UniProtKB/TrEMBL annotation:
Record InterPro entries: NAD(P)-bd_dom_sf, SDR_fam
Top-level taxonomic group: Bacteria
UniProt keywords, alphabetically: Oxidoreductase
Protein name (database record): Uncharacterized protein
One GO MF term: oxidoreductase activity
Pfam families, alphabetized: adh_short_C2
Family listed: Belongs to the short-chain dehydrogenases/reductases (SDR) family.
Length: 264
């Protein structure tokens, strides 16, 4: 291979030689993250509670499927250890699995809030602790990328059970950066806006838009650019964040620009 060919390969396949684990990879944004990292040359471990839905990523992009419930610390540890053994280590964890619960915070059964925290906060902590142990064993640093949400900084009405653990996950990201930076481990996150996915279905978009007297397009494109942001946009933002070696403890907002969610 000539020098020119080698540098073209680095440009086209910036994740060549990297092992990436993506939680919640069977659907929506996680699926797109796995696809984009695989196309960028990474060996990708896809983790999901719904492992049956991981088959097409394996067939089309060579991702390795693993059944995993991120709310079960032992399950995540076992699966990430196995994936690291099978794929030759771990360089990047994309902690993505999550789901959106709703309810007015003053009336909400406590159990529902706890259930959301199990997935939208402790699920991230479980995956991160398991990844940290692997990064340490390897002694070559690592990166953790969190899929947070712009709800973490701009709470929506009746969205407390989702937004509150997301705000805690933003704090978790910073804590990992503070505690593990000297080990060469970076922690960053993305705050996405409204994205079509299994969490935000076409049906939900139609209902929410009409409740606000908007068309689905106006609802999804209600940002400064006036365009809909897609799962691919989020996945590509993660890919860029993964390559920014000196970016740490950062939140990248990917929502087309919304003043209420813009960090200051
Ligand atoms: N869709 C949006 O508008 C939006 C906006 C901002 C942030 N996010 C975040 O993006 C992430 C992905 O959401 P999405 O929109 O792609 O939703 P999605 O429902 O399409 O995908 C979520 C995936 O997580 C998996 N999952 C759920 N519980 C799990 C568990 N206990 N263990 C392992 N996997 C589990 C599901 O099976 C599913 O495959 C979430 O963290 C969500 O909060 C979504």
């Amino acid at each position: 291979m000539t020098l020119d060919e080698a540098s073209r390969d680095v440009a086209l396949k910036p994740m060549q030689g990297k092992v990436v684990a993506v939680t919640g990879a069977a659907s929506g944004i996680g699926r797109e993250i796995a696809r984009v990292f695989a196309l960028a040359g990474a060996a990708v471990a896809t983790l999901d509670i719904n492992d049956a839905a991981l088959g097409s990523l394996a067939a089309e992009y060579g991702c390795r499927p693993y059944r995993c419930d991120v709310t079960d610390a032992a399950s995540v540890k076992r699966v990430l250890d196995l994936a690291a053994d099978e794929l030759g280590g771990l360089d990047i964890l994309v902690s993505n699995a999550g789901s959106a619960q709703q309810g007015a915070i003053g009336d909400l059964p406590m159990e529902e809030l706890r259930r959301s925290f199990e997935l939208n906060f402790f699920g991230h902590q479980n995956a991160c602790q398991a990844a940290i142990r692997i990064f340490r064993r390897q002694g070559r640093g690592g990166a953790i990328l969190f899929n947070i949400s712009n709800q973490s900084v701009n709470p929506g009405k009746d969205f407390g059970p989702y937004g509150i653990p997301k705000a805690a996950t933003l704090a978790l990201m910073k804590q990992y950066a503070v505690d593990h930076g000297r080990e060469g481990i970076r922690a960053n996150g993305i705050n996405a806006g409204r994205i079509r996915s299994g969490l935000m279905t076409d049906q939900m978009i139609v209902e929410r838009a009409s409740a606000r007297g908007m068309t689905p397009h106006e609802y999804m494109a209600g940002n400064l650019l006036g365009v809909e942001v897609t799962a691919s946009d989020i996945a590509n933002a993660f890919l860029h964040l993964a390559q920014m070696d000196k970016v740490n403890a950062a939140v990248l907002t990917v929502d087309g620009g919304v003043m209420a969610t813009s960090l200051r």
